[in-house]
Specification:
Elements lengths: L9 H8 L1 H13 L6 H18 L6 H6 L9 H10 L20 H16 L1 H9 L19 H14 L4 H26 L3
Helix pairs in contact: 2-9, 3-5, 3-9, 6-8, 6-9
Amino acid sequence: MSDMIEDRSRSKRLKGLTHDTHESLDQSIVAQRPFEDLSRYARFLAVQYGFHRDIHPLYDLPTLQRLLPDLGERRRLAEIVQDLKDVGAASPILSDPPRFAPGDVDLPTALGWLYVAEGSNLGAAFLLKWSAALGLSETHGARHLAASPEGRARHWRGFTEVLDGVELTAEEEDRVVEGARAAFVRVHGLVRDVFGCA
């Protein structure tokens, strides 16, 4: 990480270092046409379910709870489960176990994974608009795409302020980046598995 520009925030560095992986994932999701019909949307929800099932234990980490007092309110797994029910789909049975066990993850790695989760919520405004064409909304079928009461931008700033303010060693900085990249790769793998694409 010695080539990092020191005056850039950690969240900005993460954005730059994960840009290619993020772009590839976005293109892969769009290519599956998840808002074409309810059947394809249900598959999109299955991808979301797999990722949020993986990160669900992170919201119980005491170190993260101290940093983010509203951490519990940032969970979205329950909303995804309800969205699946709304569109007549069951929660998927995944072949692999959750990525994290309760308490079995270090803070830098958790921050990297949460960076991806929180960033996806920031960009969900577009997805929510697209879901409306399927008759879905913040109260039916697209709950997990809803903005927080304080608004998406302020919600994101609350997270990035914490992310940028945590003191980390150079090795821990690397683990944040590795965590974010691993999260993007995980979602990409779920897209391939659920939609059966290359």
